[in-house]
Prior knowledge:
- It is built from ten helices and 15 strands.
- The chain is an alpha/beta fold.
- The protein has one domain (4-310): Ribokinase (UDP-N-acetylmuramoyl-L-alanine:D-glutamate ligase), CATH 3.40.1190.
- The strands form two sheets. Strands 1, 4, 5, 6, 9, 10, 11, 12, 13, 14 and 15 form an eleven-stranded mixed β-sheet that branches. The chain has a four-stranded mixed β-sheet with strand order 3-2-7-8.
- Strand 10 (163-167), helix 5 (170-176) and strand 11 form a beta-alpha-beta unit.
- It is globular and about 50 Å long.
- It starts with a strand and ends with a strand.
Amino acid sequence: MAQIVTVTLNAAIDKTYRVDRFPLGKVSRVGEMISVPGGKGINVARVARQLGGDVVATGFVGGSNGDFIERELSRQGIANDFVRVEGESRLCLNIIDLSTGLSTELLEPGPVVEEQQVAAIRDKVKKLAAGSRVVALSGSLPKGVPASLYAELVGIVKAEGAQAFLDTSGDALAEGVKAQPHLIKPNEDEIEKLLGRKPEREDELYDSIRRLNAQGIACVVVTLGAAGSVAGCEGRLYRIRAPRIDAVNPVGSGDSFVAGMAVAAARGEPIEEALRLATAAGTANALNAQAGDVRPDDVKRLLGEVAVESI
Length: 311
């Protein structure tokens, strides 16, 4: 049984277009196109595999796009065991304007999931969580799925003795935290929605993290983009500073961070080393055009440049 399971309820084909310029209302010719299985949990699975983790990907897929997702994951050496649904898995487009460096994303909603398929994913997660160390639940919920599903899946994972990592937003996050996952990774906007107010200063952010820890969430990491992150884990607060780089494409860096945390947790590494690996992985992802993709040599080099300080 794999030590890390990733759950992607709204899997996708991620297409990245690199264009010289992207003016609205004009025809743009694509200079380079990359097409890979995507969705936040699949990004986590790919990076965890690149970091040497033992991983299996699950979630919902449908149609010929779903066939592509399964086939390409297998080709990349990533074990997968999905629940099939009617309709087509979605396409997500990331258009990178090389003249400005700006990235524009177009995200399809994905297929509608029926109740029997929701029941099937509960059973699938229960089976895969048994004997695993970490189950990472990532991304948006597809149509037809109740906002409480992540909370249900967190409960199933915990009952099987695994750590549940939850990385989502909106109502799915608000409901999911009620089940007390082991780890959540909100950004500044998401933590505002969770607690009803936005921290104005960094010390207010510390209080917000402590409040979430007190609600039974062992590890809360608030990501701050290029500025790094602040984490409250195992009763201590940490300020993590990421290496400075010239980013190529930051999309997927949060997923790469989660992958680093999952791999370190599966190996039983101390929390400081987990935060260091996660930050190095998230930074390394931004050096690549493809979302959710790291080069192990980049991660090794960046590890020494990550600062993890106790607060």
